[in-house]
Specification:
The structure is a single chain. Strands 1, 2, 3, 4 and 5 form a 5-stranded antiparallel β-sheet that branches. The chain has a 4-stranded antiparallel β-sheet with strand order 6-7-8-9, with no helix packed on it. Strands 10-11-12-13 form a 4-stranded antiparallel β-sheet, with no helix packed on it. About 5% of the residues have low confidence. Helices cover about 0% and strands about 50% of the residues. It is built from no helices and 31 strands. By secondary structure, the chain is mainly beta. It has a domain of about 140 residues: YVTN repeat-like/Quinoprotein amine dehydrogenase (Methylamine Dehydrogenase, Chain H), CATH 2.130.10. Belongs to the WD repeat EIF2A family. InterPro entries: TIF2A, TIF_beta_prop-like, WD40/YVTN_repeat-like_dom_sf. This is Eukaryotic translation initiation factor 2A.
Amino acid sequence: MSTTTTTTAKVSPIQFAWNANNIGFESSLWLRSVGKLRGTIARSPRLQQKNDIKTFQYSKDGRYFGWASSEMVVVIDTETTEIVKEIPRKNVVEIGFSPKGTYISTWERPVKLGENIVHKNLILWEVESGEELISFTQKSQNNWNVQWTDDEAFFCRMVTNEVQFFDSKRVDKGVHSRLRLEGIADFSLSPGKSPSIVVFIPEKKGAPARVQMFSITNFNVTLAQKTFFKADKIQMKWNDLGTNLLVLTHTDVDKTNKSYYGETNLYFLASAGNYDCRVQLDKEGPIHDVAWSPNSKEFIVVYGYMPAKATLFDHRANIAYEFGINPRNTVQFNPQGRHILSISF
């Protein structure tokens, strides 16, 4: 069973949705509103038992809720549950909204359509009109979606050895700009008013892996860079302001044979380029989870062999508070940053 939650921007009920999959039965999509005062739950009749749901998602601002079935993609208004747009695109298995909910991306598994026919299986649509903005061929489901600047002025995607940027208002002009580096394996675009992009280049022929940061307006100047070994793949986590970045590195194999899941390390980089470090953790074992506070000034790390330890760090990766040792592997802040949820799955 998969779930997703949101709080809408208007004065309206908090909502949550889940997809109940029962063995031998079709999936059913449920959307409920939780009353603010008494915590009562009101089920939405419009959305009860929507069958054949492949995926679903709220827009970032909570204004829209969308889902994909084998026949179409549907977007509704979360306050009224009225349908905003039905997009008759079959076999979509992934969807994603742009930051302001102006656009929705869809991805379907690539298929061979015939000789010299290219299947453009990643499509960007305007939500309210349902018109196609642009389409691409995207073979891998991993990191399938484009990444947007917060103002939706630009979006970007990775192809071999480069990240391509597009002007959302002038997609007919093709690629707006390119960040080209040999061996790019992953990238992340920051939130915030002055977006940065970080690219990851894995180890090769004895050279260390590295992450390298640029302003999206100038690819000739490196803002920050960090090199390290023991990094087959990474996760990049920005704070909400886009001023600091955490890089969680993973190896496929732990050469010390202490962990089945490989080795992990955590690094901190400031987008201003004036500070970076390895985050020092005082309990041996894997890093289970990392979460930024919504205030962008603190982050929590859950780490170490079970029972794991949780520690709060400040904006320079100094220890601010230790939560002690408990069996847990997941941590989240509430939207206001006043409370944390620390649990184990």
